[in-house]
């Protein structure tokens, strides 16, 4: 797998250091709010688990699967709710955990859905933000790293389901996905 990576953008050490800072900030901001942390499947699972271990607050965890990629490299533009939450959102402080905010369509869909369901507040924490790719006016409230407009894999991000288990975030060689 490592041979398929053009270059590593963020090492495991860099990711851990940034997560420690984000988790400290989130612990302060959510100290008495008992948030519902929603991990967006499947990419954000590793980030979510590592983050909540670092957060010194009472929280509940749930998962949702929303997609517009369906295994490819480009968004279809159509957002689909693949798996819904098990938790009630009404009146809750919600913290969405994302792996990457790219075009923003998926995140906007999710935020609108949670607003519709009556969340008291909705904030987004994303490991990565790709502002150059944005097609929808939405942004994360807490961001690990701003990234270039490249196809990234590792630490939860995938190409056709592979590379999620890399301990770093890297740029996938175009030859891998241009076939």
Major sheet size, sense and barrel closure: 6 strands, mixed
Number of domains: 1
Poorly predicted spans: none
Q: Tell me the name of the CATH class.
A: Alpha Beta
Supply the CATH architecture: 3-Layer(aba) Sandwich
Q: What proportion of the residues form beta strands (DSSP E)? A: 25-35%
Beta strand count: 9
List keywords for this structure.
179 residues; alpha/beta; Rossmann fold; six-stranded mixed sheet; three-stranded antiparallel sheet; 9 strands
Explain what you see:
- There is one protein chain.
- The chain is α/β, with parallel strands linked by helices and 179 residues long.
- The chain has one domain: Rossmann fold (3-Layer(aba) Sandwich), CATH 3.40.50.
- Helices cover 25% and strands 30% of the residues.
- The protein has 4 helices and 9 strands.
- The strands form 2 sheets. It has a 6-stranded mixed beta sheet with strand order 4-3-2-5-6-7, with helices on both faces. The protein has a 3-stranded antiparallel beta sheet with strand order 1-9-8.
- Helix 1 crosses helix 2.
- The radius of gyration is 16 Å and the shape is globular.
- The model has no long low-confidence stretch (mean pLDDT 94).
